[in-house]
Amino acid sequence: MAERAVTSIAGPLPVRDPVWTRLRDDAVRMAASEPTLASFVHATILNHGYLEQALAYHLAHKLGNDDLGALQVHHVLDQAFDDDPQIGTQVRADLSAIYDRDPAVSTLVEPFLFFKGFHSLQAYRVTHWLWAKDRRALAFHFQSRISEVFGVDIHPAAQIGSGVMIDHGTGVVIGETAVVEDDVSLLQGVTLGGTGKESGDRHPKIRRGVLIGAGAQILGNTEIGAYSRIGAGSVVLKPVPAGSTAVGVPAKVVGRAGCDRPAMEMNQLIDEMPGDYQI
């Protein structure tokens, strides 16, 4: 059992953390099976006492540069994780979501070490914390670095829930007033953007359990209903009802979502069902 030391009046207390335990076990096996990576795996995971500590180390070494060194970045990440334990809960849910949904993943250590969709989302969570603390200049610095390093651009003010999977990550853009609820899956090239120079609340609202295919563009303050699917390459300008599938340019609703939990099933095959389902 992996343990994290938690401060209390009586002293450190052990806390059970199944995700951290599984991650460490996977890391031990990776280090043993690939000696070339052993030092990296030890430095990034096995030398740390809990998940947030390992993640802060890993992200700091990716995001540090001449403007803000890895040690300074590490300090900011530690501040965020210590101040808001909810971030750690979200990290664990996101990591578990990738393991559960991505057929290319067989261990937790793979996305933790190598998947930039996961890295960019967790780094965004720190920018969101900075934004809430009114440390906006630093939040924008990290947003810029996340975009440079991972190819993912998420505004610090965007609201993103837990259990979210950004698969591949490249080219994902999420605007300032966008909302992404829990258990959403989205693939590369997705834009949750505005329609022009309008101000105020101007970005999409993605409800729980939605699956968004590669290259889909969802524009404006429009709602994608819970447990819906958006087909790859679609341009969505109008609301999509809950439990529906929308495809095309501009997108039209062509049927039901095909299952109760499309973001979990990751089934992107769409059988067109013409009829009353239109937007």
Q: Describe the main β-sheet briefly.
A: 6 strands, mixed
Query: What CATH architecture of the largest domain do you see?
Result: Orthogonal Bundle
Our measurement of the CA-to-CA distance between the termini, rounded to an integer number of angstroms, reads 52 Å
Shape: globular
Fraction in beta strands: 5-15%
DSSP summary: helix tally: 9
| Number of E-state strands | 15
Question: Measured on Cα atoms, how large is the radius of gyration?
Answer: 20 Å
**What does the oligomeric state look like here?**
single chain
Strand order, sheet with most strands: 3-6-9-12-14-15
Give an overview of the whole structure.
By secondary structure, this protein is of the alpha/beta class. The protein has 2 domains: 1-152, serine acetyltransferase, domain 1, CATH 1.10.3130; 158-279, UDP N-Acetylglucosamine Acyltransferase, domain 1. Helix content is 40%, strand content 13%. The chain is built from 9 helices and 15 strands. It has helices spanning 18-33, 38-46, 51-63, 70-83, 85-101, 109-114, 116-132, 136-150, 262-265; strands at residues 153-154, 159-160, 165-166, 173-174, 179-180, 185-186, 191-193, 205-206, 211-212, 217-219, 223-224, 229-230, 235-236, 244-247, 252-256. The strands form 3 sheets. Strands 3-6-9-12-14-15 form a 6-stranded mixed β-sheet. A 5-stranded parallel β-sheet has the order 1-4-7-10-13. It has a 4-stranded parallel β-sheet with strand order 2-5-8-11, with no helix packed on it.
